[in-house]
Amino acid sequence: CSVVLANKRCHLYCQSKETGDVAYMKQLVHDGTRCSYKDAYSICVRGECVKVGCDREIGSNKVEDKCGVCGGDNSHCRTVKGTFTRTPKKPGYLKMFHIPPGARHVMIQEHEASPQILGFRRIAASALIHPKGVQEG
């Protein structure tokens, strides 16, 4: 199920995967459900979207700055740059970079074509995520 109408974000609608038909379920979503994927804080209460700031206060207008600081002034960002030029000597995985928790606006560029495939692994998990799917590693 998904919410499909902006002015009825706290009303439950379902869309068929097969036909794409949308049906109103004549129900409200549970209190505390986020109003939108784009707004990490505002929640549904009794069928209405209630504005909540990043400080978790109802009615607050505080937002996170580009550094992820609630009510910040964009001055706490730290830019990390690096270039990886090593070529693997044998088949397998090679650690290139550690992206710290909370990192935002991550940009990875390949400057020239290579036969290597870029993959990502969460520190807490053993699964490796790469373009061909998830593999246990």
Automatic annotation (TrEMBL):
It is found in: Secreted. Residues 79-132 form the ADAMTS/ADAMTS-like Spacer domain. GO terms for molecular function: metallopeptidase activity. Keywords: Hydrolase, Metalloprotease, Protease, Secreted. The keyword Secreted applies. The keyword Disulfide bond does not apply. PANTHER family: A DISINTEGRIN AND METALLOPROTEINASE WITH THROMBOSPONDIN MOTIFS 3, ADAMTS A DISINTEGRIN AND METALLOPROTEASE WITH THROMBOSPONDIN MOTIFS PROTEASE. This is A disintegrin and metalloproteinase with thrombospondin motifs 3. It comes from Ataeniobius toweri. The lineage of its organism: Eukaryota, Metazoa, Chordata, Craniata, Vertebrata.
